[in-house]
Amino acid sequence: MNKNRKTIACLLATTMLVVLALSGCSGGKSAGNTLSEENGGSTNSGGKAETVTITHYTIDSEDRTFVEKLIPDFEKQHPNIKVKVEKAPYEQFDSKLQTLIAGGKSPDVTSHWGYGGFAEYYNKGMLLDMTDLMKEDGFKAEDYNIPENLMNIYKVKDHTYGIPVNMYVTLMLYNKDMFDAASLSYPTSDYEDKSWTYDKMVENAKKMTLVSDDIAKTQYGVDFTWSERDMRPLYFGAEPYSEDTWTNGGVPSETYFDSPEVIAAYNKLFDLVFKDKVSPSTEWSKSVAGQNGDPFVAGKIGMSIGGSWNLAGANDFPFKIGVAAVPWGGNDKVRSTLYVDPLLILKDSKHPKEALEWIKYLITTEVQEKSIDLSGGNPPVNTEAAEAYYKHFDGIDPQDIKNVYEGAVNYGFESYNHLITNYSQINDMFINELQPVETGHKTVEEVMTTIQKKVTEIIHR
Amino acid sequence: MSTVRALSHRPKDTRRRRKMEPIKILSFITLVVTTFLMLLPLFFMVSTSLKSKREMLKFPPSFLPESWQWSNYTEIFDTLQFGTLYKNSLIIAGFSVVGTLISSALVAYGFARFRGKGNQIWFIMLLSTMMLPYPAIMIPQFVLFSKMNWIDTFFPLIVPAFFGSAYNIFLLRQFFSTLPEELFDAGRIDGCGEIRMWATIALPLSKPALATVAIFAFIYNWNDLLTPVLYLSSSDKFTLPVGMSSLTSSRFRIPPWHLLMVASVLAMVPIVTLFAVAQKQFVEGIVLTGIK
Q1: With an 8 Å Cβ cutoff, are A89 and B203 in contact?
Q2: Inter-chain Cβ pairs, chain A and chain B, closer than 8 A
Q3: What is the pLDDT tens value at each position of chain A, 461 positions in all?
Q4: Is the overall model pTM greater than 0.95, yes or no?
């Protein structure tokens, strides 16, 4: 009896002590915080070099948190600015950002690194209009070797809301070992080589496909994951969203998912799986590579069309790989999707000026070059730094990567995924509605009317 | 249990006991098979944790690693600050368990032993808090803790545990209600106050229930991802789930599954240990009190 009582008293006492001790620490720290915030206020009103702290909010993964390593150098150059990195895992990125803003702890600099996209942030009024800030600063894109057309992506009605930092393109990765085994010649990286067509790709794929009852022996010629599902018809020249999408803040006035051109385009793609049988079904891919895995990485696919982020793991693949141009599919202008990530300043930022200083630092040639290695292969938007990026991958000819990147820019089209409002909902809807087509239970014609109706609903939500 | 009952029915017939009935053999086989099936994912977890980066990508996957990469187990400490994460998780889960036990047991005791005005209404109100999903209170709670300057500290993760939780209170209340009134009468005759009766009669007799609550609280806080993600922002304060989910966070890279499995194996250790310890308590509780 007595012993028990003692233990409980002890437990209570220790908890109290620890709680007290911990709160003591936090009290001291919070005092420091308020102090620096006060100082920050005075810098803005034209004071001297007093310290301001800005926060950079990002995904907690090595290819994003590398910016932490750049901070010491930046702080040396800007003694009055301190940078703090806040991070969250990919899945929780958006919910934490929303909570931070709602809780009055808005970060200063971030990007659309979660599921939500630029258009969504813009339409929710989360972004700062950087136009005046940049004018005051004398910001010129050419000083950072950023092509003007990339700058335009994040302009809405002539107001700038973001500055590009990374650019991913669509490219084809191919398994050299499988090409050798089928004694095929490697595909070209030259976008101007007009003999490299979609039909030629299917022809190659047929020679590498081997369907067997033994799942371990089965392999397919091609996996065509060009862009997001809703955007794929564009590859064949069929436009699913109206032109004005890009000029009015991500709200297309019309969509054409039930048009004969779009339906024909989808049919052509599903033919790869059901008629030509050179592409894996989604079930097969999942069984080989797991829910979000890529069967190409397991060495089961000859050619894979996808985003250039697929290159990032290339040095670890258990086979030899090459990069090639996306074959010509029937659209004279568009063959590659560009995924340009911007840096954004949030509207609730208390120190937009300092935030711009940090953004400018991140896009200078020297820092962009350094970032390639630190991040493990993020493609820079700065064209001069891009030269270093082309040389980053072991066993792949830098010239090939350069060709593919330059061709992708010439034939590139900015991805819809960040530029249409409520995009994460559109994307989810697409995945769900197309599922019966992917499993062969419904035809494209049957689902497209529903999709057309639902897209319109989501856009005007 | 069934063996005990069988014994009491036929205490002398030892030969019958040794000879197994066909139904028993069948259930034994079923048990062995299901155990094997249950252990298979666990086996793959340990096996993958010992594979090399290249081998983990192979299809079909190999059962046992070709070369045993014991170095994975040291590598995780370099790539993830694994030690710090582990320590943080232990601190948070540990304090939360203590907090949950003290507060929930105290409140539950009150609900079980005192009859007052509006007793039922308060209890229903308490239970109705279980229906509030976390996202509904996420932002107001964040604003509150942010006003208290508790962001990026462990407080928002530990302190709420000291204010009880509906489910655990309910569980303990039901248990306390089953304790015979005579025990407390005896206590009262000996001159015990209510707090003392709580600490010296109710708690020691409730070890099985307390062990259950402790396990629930520990597992919940050990695995919790969203709350630490919201409140913590410096890497040296992160918890294990936050660190581990960062391994799969890159959209652009193949997750290092082998390292993730190493982390999972190590993350399992405290839960298994707790189960072992609490189970002993659980059994002891029944044996010592003789109640139930």
Answers
A1: no
A2: 133
A3: 455 555 555 555 555 554 444 444 443 333 334 334 434 444 444 445 689 999 999 999 888 999 999 999 999 999 999 999 999 999 899 999 999 999 999 999 999 998 888 998 998 999 999 999 999 999 999 999 999 989 988 998 899 999 999 999 999 999 999 999 999 999 999 999 999 999 999 999 999 999 988 877 899 999 999 998 999 999 999 989 988 887 777 888 899 999 999 999 999 999 999 999 999 988 888 888 776 678 898 889 999 999 998 888 787 788 899 999 999 998 999 999 999 999 999 999 999 999 999 999 999 999 999 999 999 889 999 999 999 999 999 889 999 999 999 999 899 988 888 888 888 889 889 999 999 999 889 999 999 999 999 999 998 88
A4: no
Structure letter (DSSP) for residue A185: P
Tell me A87's DSSP state. E
| Chain B: residue whose CA lies nearest to A379 | B252
Closest CA to B70 of B54, B50, B53: B50
Instruction: Provide ipTM, 2 decimals.
Output: 0.81
Kindly list the residues from chain B whose CB atom is less than 8 angstroms away from the CB atom of residue A59. Answer: 249-250
Closest chain A CA to residue B244: A89
What DSSP string describes B180-203?
Answer: -HHHHHHHHHTT--HHHHIIIIIH
- Structure tokens of B174? 């039901």
State which H helix or E strand residue A306 sits in: strand A301-307
* CB within 8 Å: A1 and B250: no
Q: Is B53 an interface residue toward A (CB < 8 Å)? A: yes
Phi then psi for residue B26, to 5 deg, are: -60, -45
State whether A99 and B99 contact (CB < 8 Å).
Answer: no
**CB-CB: which of A5, A103, A376 is closest to B200?**
A5
Q: How far is B115 from chain A (nearest CA, A)?
A: 26
* Contact predicate A126/A346, CB 8 Å: yes
H helix count then E strand count, chain B = 17, 0
Strand partners, A222: A303
Report the residue of A34, A69, A87 to disrupt the B interface, i.e. the one with the largest count of B CBs within 10 Å: A87
Record: contact B102-A298, CB cut-off 8 A: no
